[in-house]
Amino acid sequence: MDLNGKTILVTGASGALGSALTLALSAKGAKILGTATSNDSAAKIPNKAEVRLLLDFSEPESIQTLTDYLVAASPLDGIVNASGVVAFGPAGELSRETIARLASVNSSGPMQLLADLHGKLKESAEQGNQPFVLNITGVVAETPMPGMAAYSASKLSIHGFFTALAKEWRRDGIRVLSARPGHTETGLATRPIAGQAPAFPEGMSIEQVVNRMVAAIESDEKDLASTEF
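RE: above sequence
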């Protein structure tokens, strides 16, 4: 896939991986629409993004507002979901609020976004633009971790969705990838919504993970297991 001239939505473009992906994809000539959850975090989206938008996956109205705008106002050739939250601690100590937020931000929110934007991606396919969707799912979707049960479950959920979606949307000409890198030095583990991170070994660099994902998009790969990083 030639990324030059393609319009790509990067959710979570203010975060470590989202920012790096915004820069890497724009360097390939893509037009980036970047999202953040608030006006303050939107200021962290790299200037290479041509449009800054707000999106909070925990608020259905926010998803609706964004998708209404995109359906009406913009072509769309790709979606990269780099949004996510993490929580740690024993499953028996998880609050309802923590479980609900993990589920909405990591799985149900992205599911709704993709459902709402399917028509835009299908339009892109009909124009010969080879649209794609990539979700940064993580290795816990392959190996759920103790002390991260609800987080692992939220990632298993979106991975299952993507596995089925890849088969559904293939007939529409839309490529779907679930990327499952191992622990990466993004700083996310230092910002959990609950609990405290265990002592992880040193993870992969952001550059390594981003370069691999961009290469997969360009080379028309259809899955990115943890062993591919």
